[in-house]
Amino acid sequence: MTLPDKFTVDNNKSRWTIDHGFVNLTESIFSGVSAILATVPVLVFLAIIGFMIYDTVSFFQVFLEEGKEAGASLLNFFGDKEWSVMFEPPEGTRRQIGVISLILSSGIVALIAIVVAAPLGTLSAILVSEFLPKRLSYFLVPVLNLISGIPTVVLGAFAFFTFSPLLQRLFPDTQPYNLLSSGIIVGLFVTPIVLGIGINAITSVPRSYFEAAHSLGLRKHEYILKIVLPTVMPALIAAFTLAGSRAFGETMIPVLASGLTPQFTLNPLNAGQTVSSFIFQAATAAVGFDTLEFKSMFAAGLVLFLLTLILNSIGNLSRRNFASKMLSMGVSQVDDSGTQTAQVVMEEVHLTQSNFRPASPLRQLGEVVLGALSFISVVPIGLVLLFLVVSNWRQGAKYLNWKFMTQFADPDPEQAGILAALVGNLWLVFIVIVILIIVGLGAAIFLEEYASTFLIRIFKNKKLVNGIETILEINLDNLSALPTIIYGVLGVELFVRLGEKFTGGRTVISGALTLAVLALPFMITTFRTSLRNVPSALRYAGYSVGMSKFQVILQIVIPYAFSGLASGVLLASAITIGETAALGAVVGSLGLISFTPFQNQTGPFLSQFVTIPLQIYIWTTKPTTIPLSSAAIIVLLGLILILGSLSLFIGNLFQSKTYEN
Predict the structure, then answer these.
(1) What is the distance between the alpha carbons of residues 520 and 441, in angstroms, rounded to a whole number?
(2) At what angle do helices 626-660 and 379-396 cross, to 10 degrees?
(3) For 176-211, how does the pLDDT look when each residue is reduced to its tens digit (9 = 90+)?
(4) Spatial CA neighbour of 625 closest among 417, 368, 405, 320
């Protein structure tokens, strides 16, 4: 290991000599700055709550002034069956503000999504964990996860233009905009959540369980159904809850597939506006900041925030309880406790079914059926990915040429291109990544390397410190799972309205800051994982030669974890490059942009902008430009595929490096 130049060998004293004053100063500065950066997620959470509550109160004040019904507004909010905030009421009447119609539509979409995702995700997890060879699993899991990496504006376009017509053939009463198509496509979109948690849970079941089951003569399907699934059920319930929360807050798929017409309906074949799609509609409408229409998105946002926060908290608590249960059963340390627990489980199984018949055809059929269902469970996602690529390629391939890549958007489809959107997208993501590297890495370093000792010094109470660290972990989990449109609302209020003097309003820097806040929880978690995987022996080696913690982090930990950190940065780039809902809220009323940020007189940071996902949304709303949206979708998917592939490649290098060491 090459030692830093700051260290020199004193041959007479045979020890390392260090400039302690310089080291102590840099240590104090670095730990202090990283501590400040680590508070950013907490401040974000508090800002969301504060702005939501403040503007919701303001919404009711405006409504009372308009409706002249003091004292009845909250009752109307939960009592009215219609939501007509965006429409001028007839003279002598008031607007209907019944949020229940929006909640009901969101609930229908989320329920349908769980009905789709729960069995598909669980069966796919069983397939990967119990039936497939590891090499094939390494290939299949990234393929299944591809659908969660596809921008939801692309999936929304697919749901409306391809999937809804298919439903209309099967169910003639289906409306062009309908909740069913949204629910099914959202269900496929959130299936990787169930898949990922399910795989982790199933693979964490102690090996002693399988050995005990094998000794009792259980076949594989009996072992899975009688032992594995009951054991991992808390984790699966957590997965279903988190997937349901994600589905409840999904924005762009319902915007494009379910429509923007609010109505009180229980029929999934009808159109309906969800909470998140209304927020997007209000944020992109050409209305003033002080109007009832603008304030209404905060009232709806508060409802969405609280409901998803409750679901996320339940899901994360269940997942943590399962992890604690596995730890207490000896998963991390294989000892007698794991064997004893397995023995208890097997005794219960043996009492319920003590006589197994090894040659029973029914038992053999059961194993075949479960295996077949597991293999079939991956087909829907595969078909959607295939149809998505094929249908967009057929419509948009003829537009994919140099002219399309180098022309600005134009009302004439034959002259239109995506130059402004492409440059705006890449420039925006570059700014976001710079912010994320600075804030995310600093916060991750503090939480992973300094937090415990730093907090102990302040509070001098280990239990209190543990509680604070748990709260910080839960806060990151909740922020990661919030609907992206909530961050859009935060960006509109904080960066567009309040920070207009510094950001210029609806500009590139406002969009970049919004996306940075959105991706920060994911980035911190990814960076922490990379730092945590650095072997402790390397840290101790640095300390043994007199290096300070700052020097160990800077010259040992970060270089070793570099490939993992780089992989996280590329993955964050792939996520932010396809974001639509949050940016749509920040950009506001979507219009024609015929310049790049670098061509604007205000400069590249204070310029108006458009991105490829936003351009896709604009083109999908006009029949004459639908083929252009298909061409833009192909370009966007190509960019995401490149970034995702690089992330996966670098991540595999990181895993190989960790394994070798």
Answers:
(1) 10
(2) 130
(3) 999 999 999 999 999 999 999 999 888 888 878 877
(4) 417
Tokens 């950001």 locate to: 503
137-162 pLDDT, tens per residue?
888 888 888 888 899 999 999 999 99
Within this chain, domains 100-399 and 406-439+483-660 share the same CATH topology: yes
Predicted TM-score (pTM) of this structure: 0.87
Which SS3 state, helix, strand or coil, does residue 97 take?
strand
Q: Are 156 and 388 in contact (CB under 8 A)?
A: no
Q: How many Cα atoms occupy the beta-carbon half-sphere of 9 within 13 Å? A: 3
Contact residues for 316 (Cβ-Cβ < 8 A; gap 6+): 238, 242, 474, 477, 478, 481
3-state secondary structure (DSSP) of residue 589: coil
Per-residue model confidence (pLDDT) at position 97: 85
Structure tokens at 137: 């699993």
Tokens of 597: 């940020």
Q: Which residue has tokens 């290096």? A: 547
Q: Which CATH class is domain 100-399?
A: mainly alpha
Backbone angles phi, psi at 360, to 5 degrees: -65, 125
The CATH label, of 1.10.10.10, 1.10.1740.10, 3.30.70.20, 1.10.3720.10, for the domain at 406-439+483-660 is 1.10.3720.10
CA dihedral 258, 261, 262, 265 (to 10 degrees): -60
The domain limits of the chain are 100-399, 406-439+483-660
